[in-house]
Design brief:
Blueprint: H1 4-14, E1 19-24, H2 29-40, H3 52-58, E2 70-77, E3 90-93, H4 102-121, E4 125-128, H5 136-142, E5 147-148, E6 154-155, E7 163-170, H6 189-193, H7 211-216, E8 233-235, H8 239-242, H9 245-248, H10 255-269, E9 299-301, H11 302-306, H12 310-317, H13 327-341, H14 347-356, H15 360-377, H16 381-389, H17 396-408
Parallel strand pairs: 3-8
Antiparallel strand pairs: 1-2, 2-7, 3-9, 4-7, 5-6
Helix pairs in contact: 2-3, 13-15, 14-15, 14-16, 15-16, 15-17, 16-17
This protein binds cobalamin and iron/sulfur cluster (SF4) (2 copies).
Length: 416
């Protein structure tokens, strides 16, 4: 016999969701306490909208819909296939941002879902996809859609953590699904692999150290000690998911291939190699992928990004999640990535950025990158560029960066 819950879930799948579950809409007491503690510890960094008030609202579905009785949780998978082999001056983009903005993709489907729900069952419904004060992960976990990973993402049986979450808070009284009993067990791979130490406790992230936060949310100078750890990431970071065994299991079925991927991913994180997985993981048809069908950009040329104009930014990233970062932040991120991974050919570009970029934060990071390349490649040329930029530089912070970079870049006697 088809129950009302079966009907509701089928409707969700018909609207294009990979997973659909149901939770009750009672307050999330434990999660609220943990959220408040997290804020108390300052782990939200500059995300000033993450307040006590927000934690109160987010943990009570009835604060968003007075007549809330149930929450329908949904997930959309976004694996998207292999990370391409890194080219010399290529910057990495996190998978979730490879195509269309997920807020739009899930939002369209949720709006359709809500329309159809009203037609079959009446009721009042509000949908969210990171578009309001809702704890997407806590509700997903409560509904058994997945479990809380130690990397602080929700892991699902069928797609690992490569899923984006949304929910519908509804006045419909629906029988809730149980939470899953699965956990991470004794695994700690993500905590070990995270290059910046952002996962300093199991299940708890310090956003201030997370590459995703630093490249997307953080407006200002990236702490100097963290810059080398950013590698070539210019928008987001997938490291704690790429090394996660249950996340890779559904996508790379062959056990030996999966072991190679995980080993390579770990090396990649240490800057030793790039996971050239072309032979290890299956290709997928990107044309069919919900996020990737409209213009796929999995990697970006760092020198191009270093000089990105506002017009190019609007044109190139229209409709993608990348627009969350300001154009100058992308130029800043490109400078850091070039300092970490760039080759000698990018030195003149960094010199030009230091001399001409209108944004002082970008000039400061270009100065740092020149110092780092001088030391890494044992070249004198970047230091000459720093010296010649100093007299004309009027911004105190940029002058400091230039002076520190000159002090710290030690060259051996035979450097050219
Ligand atoms: C703020 C935010 C961030 C911040 C903070 C990340 C974080 N982990 O919270 C930053 C900028 C760092 C970030 C990064 C990323 N994000 Co984000 N982000 C959010 C956002 C907007 C709010 C999350 C939030 O409220 N955090 C506050 C803390 C307190 O919440 P929490 O992690 O759930 O805290 C719980 C745990 O600490 C847990 N806990 C504590 N102790 C213990 C102990 C035990 C035993 C257990 C079980 C649990 C537990 O309890 C707390 C309360 O529930 C959500 C969307 C939303 N509205 O929910 C997306 C969201 C979490 N992000 C998402 C994504 C995709 C990412 C990135 C993967 C993007 C990328 N590739 O760069 C990274 C992943 C980084 C990481 N390792 O988490 C997805 C995650 C999907 C999933 N499968 O889980 C979400 C849900 C967006 C969406 N709608 O799909 N993000
Ligand atoms: S996204 Fe990257 S920096 Fe952030 S916790 Fe995961 S591995 Fe660490
Ligand atoms: S890497 Fe291991 S500990 Fe981390 S989220 Fe995945 S299963 Fe959990």
């Amino acid at each position: 016999m088809t129950t009302r819950e079966d009907q509701v879930k089928q409707l969700g799948r018909d609207c294009g969701f990979d997973l659909v579950r149901i939770a009750d809409a009672s307050p999330l007491h434990l999660e609220r306490a943990r959220y408040l503690q997290w804020i108390e510890e300052g782990r939200q960094g500059e995300m000033a909208w993450m307040t006590h008030e927000r934690a109160e609202r987010a943990s009570a579905p009835s604060s968003l819909l007075a007549d809330a009785r149930s929450v329908i949780t949904v997930a959309l998978s976004y694996w998207g296939g292999n990370r391409p082999t890194r080219s010399a001056n290529g910057g990495a983009i996190a998978r979730y941002a490879w195509g269309r903005d997920y807020h739009a993709v899930l939002g369209e489907r949720l709006a359709q879902y809500v329309r159809q729900l009203s037609e079959i069952g009446g009721g009042v419904h509000r949908w969210y996809v990171d578009t309001g004060p809702v704890m997407d992960k806590a509700l997903a976990a409560r509904s058994g859609l997945g479990w809380y990973g130690k990397n602080t993402n929700i892991l699902t049986e069928s797609f690992g953590s490569f899923v984006l979450l949304g929910e519908i808070i509804t006045s419909l009284q629906l029988h809730p699904d149980p939470a899953t009993s699965r956990t991470c067990g004794t695994c700690r791979a993500c905590l070990v692999a995270c290059p910046t130490g952002a996962l300093d406790h199991e299940y708890r992230i310090d956003s201030r150290k997370c590459i995703s936060y630093l490249t997307i949310e953080h407006r200002g100078s990236i702490p100097r000690d963290l810059r080398p750890k950013l590698g070539n990431w210019v928008f987001g970071c997938d490291i704690c998911q790429d090394v996660c065994p249950p996340t890779m299991e559904p996508h790379i079925a062959d056990r030996a291939a999966r072991r190679r991927w995980l080993a390579e991913s770990r090396q990649y994180m240490q800057g030793a190699a790039t996971p050239d997985t072309g032979t290890h993981a299956p290709d997928i048809n990107l044309a069919d992928h919900p996020l990737l069908s409209a213009g796929r950009r999995t990697e970006v040329d760092l020198v191009w990004l270093l000089f990105l104009s506002h017009d190019e930014y609007v044109e190139s990233f229209r409709g993608t999640a990348i627009r969350r970062a300001k154009v100058w932040m992308l130029r800043r991120n490109a400078a850091v990535a070039l300092g970490n991974t760039g080759d000698a050919r990018c030195i003149p570009a960094l010199g030009r950025s230091l001399a001409t970029d209108e944004h002082p934060v970008v000039r400061a990071h270009a100065a740092w990158a020149l110092g780092r390349l001088a030391a890494r490649l044992q070249r004198r040329e970047p230091l000459d560029m720093l010296q010649s930029a100093l007299p004309a530089e009027r911004d105190g912070d940029v002058r400091n960066e230039i002076e520190r970079s000159l002090e710290e870049a030690t060259l051996s006697a035979d450097a050219g």
